[in-house]
User: What shape does this take?
Amino acid sequence: MKFASTETYVAPPDLTLAVNAAVTLERPLLVKGEPGTGKTELARQVAQGLGMPLIEWHVKSTTKAQQGLYEYDAVSRLRDSQLGDARVHDVSNYIRRGKLWQAFAAPERVVLLIDEIDKADIEFPNDLLQELDRMEFHVYETGETVRAQHRPVVIITSNNEKDLPDAFLRRCFFHYIRFPDAETLAAIVRVHFPGLKERLLAAALAEFFELRETPGLKKKPSTSEMLDWLKLILAEDLQPEDLKRDPRQILPRLHGALLKNEQDIQLFERLAFMARGQR
Assistant: This one.
């Protein structure tokens, strides 16, 4: 079975090629791209498209690689021993399976999402090298070795906040999700808003790309923010004419869905001030 675009997800040809290549090579797919370009959603769509369950591991700054394997709750065992609980004689009662263990032990092949790996410590990817490569790990407390019953499809996302180790990159199939062009973005919008009138779509896309390409923006609006903006436009029943922005106006309509920091708002205020000065 090959991954491809669906009725609810538009996957460009280079992205479908990357997913299917990673599945064929049985290597993790490392996906980078701007926040909001659908990296996390990709894993969910791959799972749906390939008919596999999805296991999600969302990485935080405090996440350790060991947590993906298992955690030993020594505190609970000590407490139970003081209370005379018979459970203490079996250490496995205090082993909590992590997301990798869950994926390895699954009765069928699954998609494992390791989301935003670059949020963790720089050693985090290195600490997973052997487990992702050999698809097994050792549980020291019980002496058992956990091996994957079915090699999972591993999708790893990164917002490129820090460089990943070369040894880790070597084991992955890499793909960078470029921001979609106008035609692709229009196709994505039609999937989410099938009844959207073409005139309104054209006006929204023109305004969106003009804003996105404004020099000096600290954070360019993403695909997900475009969809939020369109949802508000439809809720307010705005017309194509309502979206046309006079260069002397300060901000676009419903700008809070597109501009997410005060520096970018101040940028548009300065541009508007300059435009008024040229009148």
The chain has a mean pLDDT of 89. The CA atoms of residues 30 and 161 lie 14 Å apart.
